[in-house]
């Protein structure tokens, strides 16, 4: 048996090598400064720009068992959290390599599994000291900046109406002109103008604790005008932040677009920290994604404004939908109240017919087709239908269903039908001819929101329809951009559907680059779900590599201490003498292998963000901090001190460290730890599966060479 185990360690573990190879492709997707990838479809030659591990794995042709397991693990993380997939993918590769190195040193598989599992559990418990409550984050952010003054409150209130009515926005008023952005290198004799821009832009953000984005001449640090893409730096330095292929600089949004990211600001509150806290939290969790953060801040401010209790911290992700408009510049991205979606030009003519008229609305919880049956439907048994002319009979049956469906809709005077699933094309054409607008593929959350606002009750089949199921009060119109123009994009036309009291908000995402559309939508939902999970957890982790650094420091301490199982099941395993001896003997090697995953993670992030010129330099910086943390006496206290100072891992506190003083970066608690656990569970599963395959092959070889009797003896 020992000889067999040595053979297992010496043989190649194909599954772990496949995981390592697949994970290597996602290295550049780590950190706030991701390097996007183009995925090209060989069949259509169409390319898509991606920036997430989920889209990467989804686009690959995974035929191996290890690849399928990796895909399922990534999908599970995406379905539950919508964030942390890149971390999961990288750690899968890093820990696969670490396990392979352990196998080369003849470490028993049982020792690898037990020590790595207990090491991860211990680290997850240790990093709880780096959690900070949402309330404390808001207080810290509010205390780091000045509260809004009277001018800011007035400006913010003027911006309140810009979301619902762009024509009455701040810059549309005759008495207020759009500010001119003054370059910092000309501020030596125009300090007053720079100071005005500083206060104006700070007030336009609507969140009092956000650091001022335009700074006076005396401040040498870089600054970013949010949403405009215009970056001002010191007098002697200029910074390039956009690719020429995706350049959205042009004119400043403040001067040409009347605030392209329309904001709905909350009114005065007794506690500005509570009023503006979610906006701050969105910034700290956004990790540098300016476009998504500004849209998310608009949504947060609007939801807080419409909350029943003033000052409440309300964020409901179920009330958010997205609409992707291809063909418009990214400066047209905005948040629009109501439900914005895309329809065909023929459907748009119906909207023009009853524009500004109250509509009677019907909600369909399923497909609007003749063949659709709800889940769980059981067809009658022992029934056979005999048709003499099947094709003719089917045609008559289809026409009968179309006619009866249209009669039902017209008898109840239905003008608008929202369908959760697919819609029969023939029925769609007949409805358009009768001035009935039918929109398919509507999410359940949208149906529920319209049901609450209009009083409509969803039905599964049209035959269930009665007068009490039809809602009223809906209005449909062609969606207009912030400059007041209706958009006609050719094949699809954006329309907006509103109802008094409807809680839905649509993030209208625009771009002129077709391959970039999916990327923009993914980035927005990632930012939204980060805020959503942070509020559900009620706490966040210190970001910028603080948690991973503490794990490395903690593992150093574990190497010097006896291994203690954290649960009863593990305790029973350690009662086995052979297993306990193996775990003790190889504990140091396995724990260092576990730590190597986090160390490679930190070095990759530092290299991607240009905080280190090479992996060697990044590892040197990490080792330097680990030594200082050990000498400090309390590693967690040292990390917290460096985090607050912005000196952690030489990279400040994250992507904002260079241009937004005092704004820290935080991470989700549950999403991060679950990504760790899923990554290690996958690696250990593949490890044990490979071992079983190798042992099975060896038994077959023994059986063939020595006979069944000797094999049974072994």
UniProtKB/TrEMBL annotation:
GO molecular function: ATP binding
An individual GO BP term: photoreceptor cell maintenance
Name of this chain's protein: BBS12 protein
Organism expressing this protein natively: Syrrhaptes paradoxus (Pallas's sandgrouse)
